[in-house]
User: Fold this.
Amino acid sequence: MTSKGKTRRAVSVGLCAAAVTAVLAAPAQAVPAVDRQAKAHTPGWSLKDSGTDARLRGLASVSRSTAWVAGAKGTVLRTYDGGRSWLDVSPSGAEELEFRDIEAFDARRAVVLAIGEGEASRVLRTEDGGATWTESFRNTDPRAFYDCVTFFDSRHGLAMSDPVDGKYRILSTGDGGRSWKVLPDAGMPPALPGEAGFAASGQCVVSSGPKDVWLATGGGATARVLHSADRGLNWTVAESTIPAGDPARGVFALAFRDRTHGLAVGGDYRPDQASPRAAAVTQDGGHTWQQSKNPPPAYRSGVAWLPHSRSAALAVGPTGTDLTTDGGRTWRTVDTGSFDTVDCTPDFGCWASGEKGRVARLEY
Assistant:
């Protein structure tokens, strides 16, 4: 592509990002009632028929056309055509497994994490679009319970377990998930009594760039965020503003658009309990967190930055989707459908998934 072509593409992408953010942020009355065609093209979630009723808490967006979802009953699905059709690529014999996170490198290569105590926690990998799967890790420690997995690139990744012997356990791969090893815990701060991660959306451990990774916690006296700048060997810890003090409360999901600007969402996942401070923001890589001035009105389990935006992001949960256009300081509800997780790609491929096989793509 010529330099002029690259410039035109950059301008086009920037204008598209600005337009999407502006339309999403505009109040409904701002769209003229007479302009039916414009209103019909307002960005919003478009539900896709996944063909399953399994709860899909694992999601990996590759592009606007390609995405992977994973969930209950050993379910893994993949689409190549923007969600018009879904191929069931569930691993054979995995019906008893609970897949809660999936990371995809492209349309053919993906790593999926099954959660649970002891041998229920497993990692499986495919290199042929899910036609075959290879189990690359099976947890043999009954004290460990793996919650989430993240990748820095196509080779280096980490998975995290709830505390074992008072510290979070970190699993590492350097070959794209073909093999795994437990990292030493000398650089891991002690966990709080009752503290753990939440396997709710595949976003309790997230990375940005080649070495930075963050881990979200709840259940302890305070909801904390741990940060490592060396791929999980050494960690610092900071308190968030999201309430904890109960096994059902804490930080459920994190999203970083770079190594300094991050979002945290969570609350209390019980539907009969309020979540008045369900979001927080950081501008220093997670060293300090500030409470959102106007947080989402209820518990949120997933969060993602909108592509090519420094200030817009979406948060999802069982009672709806919220949008921020000021970097997480204020949020407003833009949809009331139920989702557990959300993920976006640079080509504006924003996907969400959740209960009863619900999958949607953000349409512009």
Q: What stands out?
A: The helical segments are 3-25, 36-40. The first strand starts at residue 44 and ends at 48.
